[in-house]
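@channel anyone free to eyeball this complex?
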Amino acid sequence: MINKIAGSIADAMAGIPDGATVLIGGFGTAGIPNELIDGLIEQGAKELTVVNNNAGNGDTGLAALLKAGRVRKIICSFPRQADSYVFDELYRSGKLELELVPQGNLAERIRAAGAGVGAFFCPTGYGTQLAGERETRVIDGKPYVLEYPIRGDVALVKAEQGDRWGNLTYRKAARNFGPVMAMASERTIATVHEIVELGAMDPETIVTPGIFVSKIVKIDRVATQAGGFKKAA
Amino acid sequence: MTMSTSHYQRRTKDQLAARVAQDIFDGAVVNLGIGQPTLVANHLPAGREVILHSENGILGMGPAPAAGQEDYDLINAGKQPVTLLPGGAYFHHADSFAMMRGGHLDICVLGAFQVSATGDLANWSTGEEGAIPAVGGAMDLAIGAKQTWVMMDLLTKKGESKIVAQCTYPLTGIGCVKRVYSDLATLECTPAGLKLIDKVEGLAHAELEKLVGLPIAA
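replying in thread with the prediction:
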């Protein structure tokens, strides 16, 4: 029988090695799997490469993982936020390596890993510092930059509903990187607020099919949180 | 009549937002960048149906919720709480950026540090020593939308033109800006240089060219 439901976060996180690349879902605070990040802190893996759109808010979640000194490198598109002081301090003191990636390239490089694509040519960033020394090519008169996949050893994803096959739905804009990160990792751990019987989820609306998911853990629903936003001009 | 050099008034932020909104056509799918471009949503003319895209996976984004109704699973690119209009949809990040790079967005409106006369854009970094770099979705948006418009003050606080012959700040994209909407004038960027669309009342063409420091085709 297939049963991907883990009894606890600690069970789901067991065996994550030092040096792992961990893809962490979320944009700002929407979809950040804080419970799993806390579990990773408890689990103890270090020298991690973390992939997330941002670089943590305040003192909790990803910021707490950074503060605990467990991250060697972060790959993200927008580390600087109103309350990203943990990252700022580590980066400025040279204790944390940063690979800055345009957001669409970040998503597509992750998707490519999940889809088994070896590399792809993308127009984003052509002629800019962020294209670095990578190969370029003109296709149908338009310039492109060669981009390589970002694969994860582990993905930590916050979802809404799941079943024992690992099928998932998400909630609103908290979906963001979850589906592509789930595809791109050796092992994907998702939290859900509700576990339902097989067949209870409408197959037309399952967003991440269970093939991409290794473990699901039920967590309590807490109020959604603000963090790191800029006021409009 | 005696000629005077400064009988004009800058567009206010709201007037500028209204000027941009006036050019957004009925049925357009539009991405409004963080900061000043967000204001454009408040000025869309009545009777025009416009679908707002947010890079974090939303089409059909609605206005901010009433106080107390914030749901931080439903935020915009600036991480502020928003709402979803009837007909709106959620999708994942790779699909959201496919909408840009695949040429499905009609218009994106971005802020800028500098724009070149031929439409190069610099809006993600001032290249300042020790600054923490952050790019977000700017590069994908700039080259992906069918039309990229910039909304900014024409001059820096020091009075230097932000429209330049060549950007000196790190580039976001090459030749990607089609129009610049500024507090003093609306200009088109073309491979041959700047072209005037409109300017504030009382600002002479020669004076505008002097402020920008570049020729502007009438």
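from a first look: The helical segments of chain A are 9-13, 34-43, 62-67, 85-92, 103-115, 178-183.
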